[in-house]
Records
---
Amino acid sequence: MLRINNMTTGYGMADVLHGFDMELNKGEIIAVVGANGAGKSTLMRAISGLLPLKSGSIKFNGKDISKVSAHTRVDQGLVQVPEGRQVFGPLSVVENLTLGFFSKRKQGKTQLQKRLEYAYHLFPKLAERKGQKAGSLSGGEQQMLVIARALMSDPSLLLLDEPSLGLSPLITEQIFEVLVELNKNGLSILLVEQNAFETLSISDRGYLIENGNMVLNGDSKQLLNNPKVTEVYLGNE
Ligand code: ATP
């Protein structure tokens, strides 16, 4: 579904990712783990189209999307939940969700209603707070809202950048449970995290990045037992 081939990208003269390869098959949850500054967010920006490639390619459903704009990628079903809970604070929960439906607005009100109901089913907290200003939600609720907003356009591949950042273990667990449910319903997921153990526990396969290089990849269960992964985890404690 997603294939990254020999990709180099970065900022200005500085390359962050060097000759990076990665693959995600339809229906998988893929984990990308690595320490602070390893290049995880850079990878996400390149996939979602916010950062141009210097070389290499990204293919989505067999088509080269390396030069396709970010909003066209969203239309094609590739949607990123940005790092750091970017909600529209003065707007209500339902207004935030409705904005996530913008690219699908031609589908009309009935479809909008269906997507809203699905969001509320996944995150009942959001249903309780649908009229509340997004800026007044707790950190965990804001994270739920940005995920739910991304789902409003009915993506086929969801990219998540550190959804657990700053959240309690309990809220993180709730959010990860929803990701597993979404995956069972057919959504493919690319999950970038410093939180290596939890992430590898819910994913099928994983990649470990160090200083912009992919140093390990494989079955998540095997990676969980790899000392290099433990090192990254302990380095973040
Ligand atoms: P974190 O979890 O801290 O966000 P990360 O693995 O996501 O870490 P990146 O944010 O991708 O890492 O950063 C990788 C490298 O790119 C770092 O050295 C960082 O300083 C650099 N970098 C990130 N964003 C920019 C930018 N806008 N301009 C220049 N350099 C950047």
Note: Residues 169-184 form the longest helix (16 residues).
---
Amino acid sequence: PSANVGVVGLAVMGANLARNLASREGNRVAVYNRSPERTRTLVSAHPEAGFVATESVADFAAALTRPRTAIIMVQAGKATDAVISELADAFEPGDIIIDGGNAQYTDTIRRELELRQRGLHFVGAGISGGEEGALNGPSIMPGGSAESYETVGPIFRSIAARAEEDGEPCVTHVGTDGAGHFVKMVHNGIEYADMQLIAEAFDLLRRGAGFEPAEIAEIFAEWNTGELESYLIEITAEVLRQVDARTGRPFVDVVLDQAGQKGTGTWTVQAALSLGTPISGIAEAVFARGLSSHPEQRLAGAHLEGPGSPIALEDRDAFVEDVRQALYASKIIAYSQGFDVIRTAASQYGWHIDSGAVAKIWRAGCIIRARFLGRIAEAYQADPSLVSLVTAPFFSEAAGRAQQAWRRVVSTAALSGVPAPGFSSSLAYYDALRAPRLPASLIQAQRDFFGAHTYRRIDGPGVFHTEWSGDRSETQTGE
Ligand code: NDP
């Protein structure tokens, strides 16, 4: 055997990851794909990589030094299970199987347990950054045993993106079993929220303030020099500058306004619902894509009455600055909620996730990479038990500075009939966190009225019920 790492599944992601691995000092990469043509094509196109080509699982296993380390990059679901099963049969105790696909974290938990019982290590690694990231440096979120990370860590560090600020590789041992895939899923959920907030800012500037896409491109480019600096803001400016070659119109105007999705946003919201963690910003983003993709409902709704003419803005520059601040504040809420769901899942599954380390590995290589993530890492380093990111000094001050503008933007959106579910739900969340009392008291009273669900009192311990249909006396029903 001569290869220290292998890749199974040589479609675009696997091939690029294999090439990335091969280009790094110290790695020798064995490759295997179910259909051998793919292996032959890759190996002949990239002689410089020095791949060890194999055409059977047995040969693949024989090519790897112990502990064998193989990264699977095939379709999530049944295909991944099939490949894991074949590798597990050919590998020996102590060997390491890594799933680099977009698996459901619950599948990863199940697979890890099954392989652990057979003496094998299973690492569920979220890999973000798409094809380009796989080739030039992704952000990697591995979950698995600490023992396997001793082998896997140096391999991943050799290929991960590096943060501009300090050159640190964007990979950390996230936690055990499903932790890595969970964090990758939440990364995607946050990506949905980020994109939705940017889209709302665009819509307000376009329809609210009447700017042309090319002008908004310049606004975004300007925003990208400040606290909003991020990959998504940068590419938004590029997209808005683009002119359609066929019609000469702004490109954004000729794209059908129905957003697609592949499921990770929905998974994030489903997980948050099960964990009882409000991630309203991410949920609104998933729902907004859903609403956009129901043309029959939108057609039926097109005649619903609105505010008539768009509202007249007195000062367009001031409005642009307000929108920037509303975007920043809403973004803080989306990330705060995203880290909340990671924290609650970590405690539910015993993952011990270091939120600051997660923020750090998102600084480069992945879609949500941004300057902002360095600040999040600092906030968690300063206070690892932080219960809500927005309450950390840096972020509470930033949200506090933005809140007046945020309120003006949300009210302008409502008055002008421009939907801004991300901005408005984030503001509602912020105000709910601040509220000295919530009307949950009334909800508890209602629940006790119709279902005898009981309530607690503010003035002492105990669980109580009022005889609503009788004499309305109160009885204590528990401690
Ligand atoms: P695909 O998801 O299209 O999967 C194709 C690969 O799966 C081929 O190598 C194919 O082999 C193999 N395969 C499918 N079924 C089986 C099976 N039953 N047994 C063995 N092999 C099988 O490839 P991608 O490169 O697009 O993606 C790979 C993984 O990476 C996926 O999990 C995907 O979700 C994830 N991904 C992640 C991205 C990111 O940004 N992180 C972006 C894109 C993908 P064959 O050639 O024989 O058909």
Note: The chain has a mean pLDDT of 97.
